[in-house]
Amino acid sequence: MDAIVSGCLQAQLGAVERMFAAIATAPGARCLLTGGAAAPLAAHLKIPFQLADNLILNGLVRYAESR
Length: 67
Prior knowledge:
55% of the residues lie in helices and 9% in strands. By secondary structure, the chain is mainly α. The chain has a single domain (2-66), classed as ATPase, nucleotide binding domain (Nucleotidyltransferase, domain 5), CATH 3.30.420. The relative contact order is 0.15.
């Protein structure tokens, strides 16, 4: 079981860091992390990041209020 969990974590980290590489040279670039897996991912990331609680829900509220 540990090998599966570790493999999934490494796959997620690789995907996030690979996508970040496309914007890494932009001034102030950082990865926004949200959701249930944000904290476990953050503990292992080697890129600038910011934890953003309820990012999706806050966006939906803003969208609803703008209509």
